[in-house]
Amino acid sequence: MNIAYPASEFENDVAAVEGFAQLLQTGFENPEGIRGTVRVTIPEHPEQSFIARYSDTLLIERHDMDRDTDTQVIIPIATIHRIFNEFESLDWRDPDIIGTITFTGDLSFANHLARSCIRPSNWTLARFRSAGRLHAARGYRDLTQIEYLHQPTQRQILEAMAKSRPLVITGLEPSPPCRDWSLDKLAERYGDAVVRVRSATLRQTMAEFVAELKAFEANPYDNMIEGFVKPYTEGAALPEQMWADFGPLFFEREDFIPPQLWLGSVPMHIPTSSLHRDPLTGFLLQVIGRKRLDLYSADQEDLLYPMKSYNNYQPCWFKPEAPCTDLYPKAKDAKCLSVTLNPGELIIQPAGWFHQVYAIDSPNMSVSYFWRY
Ligand SMILES: [Fe+2]
């Protein structure tokens, strides 16, 4: 212990590390029976460092600290305090958090631990519960056709949302100008706009990102190896200067949380977003290429194996693109509503619908908004 360190703060730090370890243990799930070890080093309090060992449960060990581990994580105490205080809303992709942590070794173990220490708020739990009840009462799992509305009024949209019914809206042109966007047009009009590409934790200008994307598109996907970094913006914040061209639609800008950009190239067999659900109503505007969305009603929760540790959205253990029915036997009874979204169309997904998204065409661009209410 550094004797210059104030004792009270040290106590507080110890409590934070203890709380952090408990969050990891109580949130840990391991349905796939993965085995491995992660050394978690806290530089300010080396004696509080620990090795997390994957078993059916997560074991926290403080012996043989010099042994080899699959993954090494160095996390400052300030970040542990932040995790402990913000686990209901924390976004791991936030550079102020991820940028403070050093990872080496197999990153999949670190990702697994990162998921284990977040939790849903009571508000989120209540949203999912009420969606589940409503979808069950209305028999939404048996829907085979999504509803289309051509140039609807705001009132029609509010009615559909009140019934938690997904819908596709057509006839948006010419305002905003959803059609005829291309990579060249984006680079020309928004070349200087700064996009934070989350998957690469990079900030790039639109011109740079488009140039990279075109170079990537010139290479066939055959060259890709497992674990490649998708040239995809993964819901990066939509640059301000693009807001006017890409909605938001039907409601005021203040009614939505800031829009997100999904631009890039992802092969059809890899989902651009893997199976999850959101506690807010999502608006997804398709701009370039087509996307396919596979929707599952909220009352099918027990068939899809959603993770118990999550906060801003709830991912599922079950992967429809590589279904493992030995581990997830109930998933074979899940019923999916599949929708193809064309450029210029907007899908509204009420809170609680599970969804998995694929890019049918590359390049592909969508803009999403979450309605605040
Ligand atoms: Fe989503």
UniProtKB/TrEMBL annotation:
InterPro entries, A to Z: Cupin_8, JmjC_dom
Alphabetical list of SUPFAM superfamilies matching this protein: Clavaminate synthase-like
UniProt-listed Pfam families: Cupin_8
Occurrences of domain JmjC (ranges): 227-373
Protein name according to UniProt: Cupin-like domain-containing protein
